Amino acid sequence: MIELIRIADPVSLQIACDALEDNNIAFTVENAGMNALMPLPELMDARLLVAADDEAAARQIIVDLEL
Questions:
Q1: Residue 25 phi/psi, 5° resolution?
Q2: What is the C-alpha separation between 5 and 29, in angstroms, rounded?
Q3: For 18-55, b where at least 16 C-beta lie within 10 A, e where not — what string?
Q4: Mean pLDDT over residues 17-41, rounded?
Q5: Is-contact 35 8, C-beta < 8 A?
Q6: Is 16 exposed, middle or buried (0-12, 13-18, 19+ CB in 10 A)?
Q7: Could you list the residue range(s) of the whole structural domain that residue 49 is in?
Q8: How many structural domains is the chain composed of?
Q9: What are phi and psi of 50, to 5 degrees?
């Protein structure tokens, strides 16, 4: 799995996850909710991971969403 983006905002994370799901791109989220427990910028951001085969399409979705 390749890290697609780090996101601190839970709303932006949900938008990104919904968009990937709508486009049938498998993904994993690591550290979801950790920012609420330990609000350390960039250290505890959620990490959105995708398979290498889906990376280009997933990156385009993130660009289109302006995240």
A1: -105, 120
A2: 10
A3: ebbeeeebebeeebbebbeeeeeeeebbbbbbbeeebb
A4: 86
A5: yes
A6: buried
A7: 2-65
A8: 1
A9: -135, 160
Q: Which two tokens stand for residue 66?
A: 């302006």
State the pTM of this model. 0.83
Work out the burial of residue 58: count CB atoms within 10 Å of its CB; fewer than 13 is exposed, 13-18 middle, 19 or more buried: buried
**Span 30-54, pLDDT tens digits:** 988 776 666 666 667 899 999 999 9
Which amino acid is residue 61, in one-letter code?
I
Amino acid in the structure at residue 17: C
CATH at residue 43: 3.30.70.790
Answer yes or no: are the C-beta atoms of 57 and 25 closer than 8 Å. Answer: yes
